[in-house]
């Protein structure tokens, strides 16, 4: 291996592959192999106890699309994703705008605000459950004292509000850091020029700041939708377990319930494929229609 300026030139072909081998092995064992097995399982009816499989073609997908319960989970997940994304991005943007001047010169505070993102989803779910548990939750008891009926263990609407709030809280710090970085990248001279021209804070935010944050907002939109679809399993499992009455049975949780608890491996694998297709389709739609409104100038 030779170094020429900033470029690294390998004299042979073996060394680069040897350096990549550990990462490729991890990808093969923990991603490509499970993904391949999942695709194969989607076309079989498996007996988990006798270790036998029967090829059924597309029957697992047909049964899936004919199930009203599955379509309920689809619409439920879409609503949950939209609510979580809107709430987490809105709160993060408001916090970033409010904290822009305070945190501009504080590296320590900028590092601290991302700490909630490091909390595991299951831990985040347990924290919110302890706060809002109808029997002993501090905030739940405060709501009861105010005369607000609250019981996420029995009321599906309350349960959905709770997992949306927990999932959004988990993601706010991630969005906050990116929005804050985007705000600090805007030249102060532009803000000052707009202020001199008579634009108030609200108009500067609407006509100047938000358009300049377009690329950051678009990136966070894509990442938040992916997060809501794939990374909220731990929160749902810790808080509601998909209940009450399936009111919070998101697609990612239904894959787990059918595959690991009901032992219907074929249906679970088919659901995994459909879930991936939905997320890819939503991402393509965002790039197709939303990115057109984003200016990178």
Automatic annotation (TrEMBL):
Residues 74-286 form the ABC transmembrane type-1 domain. The chain crosses the membrane at residues 14-33, 80-103, 115-143, 176-196, 208-230, 269-290. It is found in: Cell inner membrane; Cell membrane. One of its GO terms (biological process) is transmembrane transport. It holds the Pfam family BPD_transp_1. It comes from the Bacteria. Its main location: membrane. Keywords: Cell inner membrane, Cell membrane, Membrane, Transmembrane, Transmembrane helix, Transport. It is a multi-pass membrane protein. Belongs to the binding-protein-dependent transport system permease family. Part of the ABC transporter complex UgpBAEC involved in sn-glycerol-3-phosphate (G3P) import. Probably responsible for the translocation of the substrate across the membrane. The complex is composed of two ATP-binding proteins (UgpC), two transmembrane proteins (UgpA and UgpE) and a solute-binding protein (UgpB). This is sn-glycerol-3-phosphate transport system permease protein UgpA.
């Amino acid at each position: 291996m030779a170094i020429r300026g900033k470029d690294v030139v390998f004299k042979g072909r073996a060394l680069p592959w040897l350096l990549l081998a550990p990462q490729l092995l991890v990808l093969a064992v923990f991603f490509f192999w499970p993904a391949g097995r999942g695709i194969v399982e989607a076309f079989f009816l498996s007996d988990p106890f006798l270790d036998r499989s029967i090829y059924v073609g597309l029957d697992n997908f047909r049964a899936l699309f004919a199930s009203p319960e599955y379509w309920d989970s689809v619409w439920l997940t879409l609503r949950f994703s939209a609510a979580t994304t809107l709430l987490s991005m809105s709160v993060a943007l408001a916090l970033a705008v409010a904290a822009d001047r305070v945190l501009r010169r504080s590296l320590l505070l900028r590092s601290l605000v991302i700490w909630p993102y490091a909390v595991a989803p299951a831990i985040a779910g347990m924290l919110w459950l302890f706060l809002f548990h109808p029997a002993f939750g501090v905030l739940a008891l405060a709501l009861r004292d105010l005369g607000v009926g609250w019981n996420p263990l029995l009321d599906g609407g309350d349960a959905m509000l709770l997992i949306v709030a927990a999932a959004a809280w988990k993601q706010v710090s991630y969005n906050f850091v990116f929005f804050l970085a985007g705000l600090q990248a805007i030249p102060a001279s532009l803000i000052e020029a707009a202020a001199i021209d008579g634009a108030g804070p609200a108009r500067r935010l609407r006509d100047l700041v938000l358009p300049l944050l377009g690329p950051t907002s678009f990136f966070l939109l894509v990442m938040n939708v992916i997060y809501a679809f794939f990374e909220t399993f731990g929160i749902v499992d810790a808080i509601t377990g998909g209940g009450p009455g399936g009111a919070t049975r998101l697609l990612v949780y239904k894959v787990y319930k059918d595959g690991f608890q009901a032992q219907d491996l074929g249906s679970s694998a088919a659901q995994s494929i459909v879930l991936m297709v939905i997320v890819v389709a939503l991402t393509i739609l965002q790039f197709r229609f939303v990115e057109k409104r984003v200016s990178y100038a």
